[in-house]
Design goal:
The protein has 170 residues and is mainly alpha-helical. Helix content is 52%, strand content 4%. It contains 5 helices and 2 strands, in the order H-H-H-H-E-E-H. A two-stranded antiparallel ribbon has the order 1-2. The longest helix is centred in the last third of the chain and has 27 residues. It is globular and about 50 Å long. The chain starts with a helix and ends in a 12-residue tail after the last helix. The C terminus is likely disordered.
Length: 170
């Protein structure tokens, strides 16, 4: 192992994004029905589609700020093909492809690092700076946070939000 800390970060990125069988972002998206993709609970502001587009945009912007030219921001969308919630032509497949492209781009940039670079300060897309290890960790946590948010929305839609705890024997 030449760069065990980078390899650990890559492992954690892969787990949070796709590989963990209980909590991964993609695990929570695999079972989203087409009718749930744009559904919003009463009083809610974001659909699953909007959450996924947000996660993809953040991956693009963090990667661009940390490893690129820093040209992206919320005022300058990450790519010209940014999936718009209001566009009925944008499908779940379109947004999922955009998310995967953003993940692969971020992962490739992290993969190119050496352990001795992880403490380097790099710009953040909203200003200021942070150590590369902090930035990558924030993106890992971001995937898990939104995986939980998506799971919660699915549960609300399906009418089974919350656990049915078996209280017998307690």
């Amino acid at each position: 192992m030449e760069n065990p800390m980078v390899e650990l970060l890559l492992y954690q990125m892969d787990q949070a994004y796709a590989d963990d069988e209980e909590h991964a972002l993609l695990l929570n998206l695999r079972s989203v029905a087409p009718t749930e993709w744009r559904w919003k609970p009463e009083g809610s502001k974001r659909s699953i589609q909007q959450i996924v587009a947000h996660v993809a945009a953040c991956k693009y912007m963090y990667e661009n700020a940390t490893f690129g030219d820093g040209s992206m921001s919320w005022n300058r969308p990450p790519v010209n093909t940014f999936p718009q919630e209001a566009d009925p032509e944008v499908s779940a497949d379109d947004v999922m492809a955009w998310l995967d492209e953003a993940q692969q781009r971020l992962r490739a940039s992290v993969s190119a690092l050496r352990d001795d670079q992880l403490s380097e300060q790099r710009p953040l897309n909203w200003g200021g700076s942070g150590a590369i290890r902090w930035i990558v960790n924030a993106m890992i946590q971001h995937d898990l946070y939104h995986a939980g948010e998506i799971n919660h929305l699915r549960g609300l839609r399906e009418g089974n939000d919350g656990w049915e705890w078996d209280q017998k024997g307690d």
